[in-house]
């Protein structure tokens, strides 16, 4: 009886596998976007923002 899977158990295992795959995908996407952002420099530095705010006043 240890290896018996009825319809409810099988669909639960499919749901668990799908949720796990979706979770891994989201985690990878978040990790990669954080990694990509680290490599790029912020175009607006504090010095540029200060100059911009002075000239617009």
Summed over residues and divided by their number, the pLDDT gives a mean of 77
One letter per element, helices H and strands E, the order comes to: HH
Number of strands: 0
| Shape estimate | rod-shaped
Task: Give the helix proportion (percent range).
Answer: over 70%
Count up the helices: 2
Q: Please compute the radius of gyration using only Cα atoms.
A: 25 Å
Structural class: mainly alpha
Strand proportion: under 5%
Describe the biggest sheet?
none
Short description:
77% of the residues lie in helices and 0% in strands. With 57 residues, it is mainly alpha-helical.
Tell me the layout of helices and strands.
Blueprint: H1 7-39, H2 46-56
Report on the structure:
- The protein is mainly α and 57 residues long.
- It has helices at 7-39, 46-56.
- The radius of gyration is 25 Å and the shape is rod-shaped.
- The model has no long low-confidence stretch (mean pLDDT 77).
Properties at a glance:
single chain, 57 residues, mainly alpha
């Amino acid at each position: 009886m240890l290896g018996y899977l009825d319809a409810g158990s099988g669909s639960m295992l499919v749901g668990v596998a799908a949720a796990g795959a979706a979770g891994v995908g989201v985690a990878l996407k978040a990790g990669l976007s954080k990694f990509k952002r680290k490599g790029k420099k912020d175009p607006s530095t504090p010095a540029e923002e200060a100059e911009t705010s002075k000239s617009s006043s």
